[in-house]
């Protein structure tokens, strides 16, 4: 084991430990444990949102895809960027306003209150979706951590997985949401620096971009084609297959929970979009070119890598002084931890709060609920550990499968409930049940994570139509239609419709004081809506 790499990583670990200790002083109640008391600054919430979003997939899975597929993998980056923007436009501000109105701590809290569901079925379905797919997602992060430790410290993948689980679980149990948010801020900066430094070092080592593309062209010219060499309809399917991540953003509980915690919903538009968009563009650029240039280095004999998804840690060890490589390894582990910690917290809330407290009706003190939540975190981590050790260990596909289940389970109902006043609890129950069952059947039993013609009979025919497109992309729109149809045949309570109309009514923009109408309109509509709500005392 390289002592320099170990030293750099231990410095990083000490920083995380300090943040966990500091955050524990502010974690005394359930509200603080799960959403930070709704007092999180927009900068911290935004960086935490993106660090939670871009997991080991960003640092290992996406560079591995760029290594294997070349320029075509850039479509995944486009999908992620526009998915991020869609979240801030369609979900963030409205969800924060509703969460404040209902004092909602979790996504199931919001859905139950918004749709006035007294059957508890929405909460039960939500808990099942979260536990099943979030545990699978956590397992993918543990696998990513294991691969990084293996490449950086010369240990086995399984040993690295165990180390990842121990570190992660310890600081989530200790600090709750405050620890998660502020470690995410540090991790976001580590990820950013890593993904800026590594591609430039690789470019310098190769001798320029022209030489890199010449090496790649000689190895496989299709890697320089934006559609992987495909043409016509096949090219469109190729692009959709990679860019399909866009719809998944609308249904990730560990991401949208950040919007519920921010101190001021108005800042989720301009400051939030600017911070998040800038960070996203930089890290996606870096992750793509790290994998793309890593392929050139590999074929030029400058880099040895046994697994395409280990290309960034391999490049760090090869191109940097050992102590600096230790910080880069820490940056990769940051990406893994920043997502897995949020996922553990969301899974914990689904079991401890949504099921144990709300469905079973067990009344406990706030401190007891926090302690139960911590026990649940440990239990979910152990299940995720088992899946990580026994699973396929292909991060890109593992993340796509879990991402898809959450996207279909929550995305359609979140969008419709936030924007359509006629959405009903019956539509939500049927749609969420369909999303849960169909994703489990299609992904676990029939297709895997993407459609293919190898499925039997009728399913093989469908697989041929959409061959290569992730199952969740098509299933998202099917679920959206199911919810809409059932909602049109049922009727929401009048007070629910009226509340939605009152909260999101169009607010007139008038000349005020010395401000002209043009100056007044410089505010976004959502900012004017929030001003109106705060003035009228409806939130």
UniProtKB/TrEMBL annotation:
GO terms for cellular component: plasma membrane. Belongs to the sodium:solute symporter (SSF) (TC 2.A.21) family. It is a multi-pass membrane protein. CDD domains: SLC5sbd_PutP. GO terms for molecular function: proline:sodium symporter activity; sodium ion binding. One of its GO terms (biological process) is proline transport. It is found in: Cell membrane. The chain crosses the membrane at residues 5-23, 65-91, 121-140, 160-182, 189-209, 229-251, 272-298, 323-351, 372-389, 395-420, 427-449, 469-489. Keywords: Cell membrane, Ion transport, Membrane, Sodium, Sodium transport, Symport, Transmembrane, Transmembrane helix, Transport. Its main location: membrane. This is Proline permease. It comes from the Archaea. It comes from Thermococcus celericrescens. InterPro entries: Na/Glc_symporter_sf, Na/Pro_symporter, Na/solute_symporter, Sodium:Solute_Symporter. It catalyses: L-proline(in) + Na(+)(in) = L-proline(out) + Na(+)(out). Coiled coil: none annotated.
